[in-house]
Amino acid sequence: MPISVFTICQLVPTLKLAEKEILVILAQRHLAETCSLDMLSRAEQARYHAYVFEPDRQRHLLAHSLKRQILACLTDQAPARLEFHTGQAGKPYLADGKMHFNISHSGDWVALAFSADLQVGIDIEQARDLEYGKLLTQIAHPKDELPPSNLTTEQRFLASWAMKEAVAKCSGEGLSMHFPSLCLNPDGTGRYVCQTSDAVWDVCHFVHNDTHLAVASQQAHQNLRVVQMRI
């Protein structure tokens, strides 16, 4: 997956999204040092101060600063004036509905997805010290297919979880969705089809710096653009 590298000042002035295009923004949490808490709403600032640990505060500040800057550019509004609501399962959305977006973070990384016309879900997963074999059995569908066949148990779990959580976030159900009911199969083009008995999602998965990233939409996207932010 080709990844472009920009500063926020380089990216924002000319940023536009084409029809059925998904933009993914990646940023390492140390970039939070370049963000201003003043850009966040009172509720977002309160959430920032509620975190006990500094890495959590960094991820929160960076994610919501980037969210506001990118959406402000895409909707031609001031970042501080953007208003957000949340769905029943907690998925955030713009009050005016002009742009779709989703946020994820794990370890050293923050990831955001944006689309003008597609509901999107994104998940990023950095490996931790967990019992991946046991966890995989709890989320696997009997017909899941994750090529190549030589993936480790850790890789299979992180790929499966990232894709299924991206689907769950795209649907708006979040972690209330029953992951073992989601069946993952490659479609032959480098993407995956994720389906239940009554719904189908288009999913893209890739690994960047040993970190698994997945993006889901209910309609196939025409272009996936991935940008990593730098200072």
Helix-strand layout with pairing:
Layout: E1 3-6, H1 8-11, E2 21-28, H2 42-50, H3 54-75, E3 84-86, E4 92-94, E5 100-106, E6 109-115, E7 120-126, H4 132-139, H5 153-171, E8 183-186, E9 191-195, E10 200-208, E11 211-217, E12 223-229
Parallel strand pairs: 1-12, 2-12
Antiparallel strand pairs: 2-6, 3-4, 5-6, 7-11, 8-9, 9-10, 10-11
Features of this protein?
5 helices, 231 residues, globular, 27% helix, alpha+beta
Query: Would you tell me the structural class of the helices and strands?
Result: alpha+beta
**Radius of gyration, in angstroms, nearest whole number:** 17 Å
Helix content: 25-40%
- Termini Cα gap: 22 Å
Oligomeric description of these chains? single chain
Low-confidence stretches: none
In which order are the strands of the major sheet placed?
1-12-2-6-5
Individual helix count: 5
The global form is globular
Total strand segments: 12
**Which percent range describes the beta-strand content?**
25-35%
The average pLDDT value, as a whole number, equals 94
Write a concise synopsis of the structure shown.
The protein has 5 helices and 12 strands. It is α+β, with helices and mostly antiparallel strands. Helix 2 runs antiparallel to helix 3 and helix 4 crosses helix 5.
